[in-house]
What we know:
The chain contains ten helices and no strands. It is mainly α.
Amino acid sequence: MVDLAPAGQTVGGADSACQLLHEGRQYSRCPRGLDRIPDDGSEASAEKWYQRAEIARDAKDEAGLDTILQHMRATTPKSPWLESALLSAGNMYLLSKDYDRAIDYYREIHERFPEGTKAAYAHWKCAWLTYRQNRKEQAKKYFEEQVEFYPGTNEVPTPCIGGAAWPRTIASTA
Length: 174
């Protein structure tokens, strides 16, 4: 399982009570604390919007989540907090069986953050869900990319790295 919050990212501007509520997944109880953090494009701001994305996700507020992600894309496009928010959104749609929307979010992580901490995992999810949606040619491309871009990760079994027969085998069977 991939952690949602960026490694080593504790922003001083975030209210410590909100951090404890975050750890207990009680996001809806800390929006006022989030309001005290300026919306200035900083990492503290990105974390604030990530927390708001978690609140929207927990409330199953798809429109609110989309608005928050649009804001993050515009104001903190390189932040690991955006990467985490996109993963959380992808997971939300995966759990609700809206696979096409989940694929879109996972693909965006790989495209926007190819060296990010969640890129290999997200790309794998994109490839696997594409395969599950019976899009063989696209799945084959994604599986081959997985081996090319992310060799040595947990998502690529070691025997695949040499000949990469594994993605072609998976993509050719359905």
